[in-house]
Amino acid sequence: MDNNQSEQFTPRTQLELKLGEQLNALISASHALNVRAAARFDSTLQPAAFLIVRWLLSYGATSATALAEATAMDRSSVSRLVNQLKHLHYVQSETTPEDRRGVRLSLTELGRERTLEALKEKESAFYASISQWDDASLKQFTEMLQHFNNNNLK
Q1: Domain HTH marR-type: where (predicted)?
Q2: Which of 66, 94, 103, 107 is most buried per CB count within 10 Å?
Q3: All domains of the chain, ordered by start, with CATH?
Q4: What is the pTM of this model?
């Protein structure tokens, strides 16, 4: 935003635009790191497959329907990606004990190991960004992000 444009906006609007720029930068950097981590996980798969294994690592076994909802992917895409992940022995399916008709998906040990290895690069990039911050700054940043995420993205 150049000076002529910024003069047209209120101070609050200018702050909101600057916040938007910074959020876009964070999202872009995070996406680039996710793509690199996905390639490190398995370069033969689409990055969306890594989103699935990352979700399973974080939240555990679930149904394909719940996985599709949680990752904002359509059910057919999740099914296709899960089949590829199962074929490569990263994901396994088992009948749910409560309902013999249902199927739960989970990571195999190989899938878990590969996911953790792939995440190391992503985590090291984020940790490098905050390594010089004092504890109070890190705490404030974390609390502000938590407040933002809890109140605005539901």
Answers
A1: 16-150
A2: 107
A3: 3-152 (1.10.10.10)
A4: 0.76
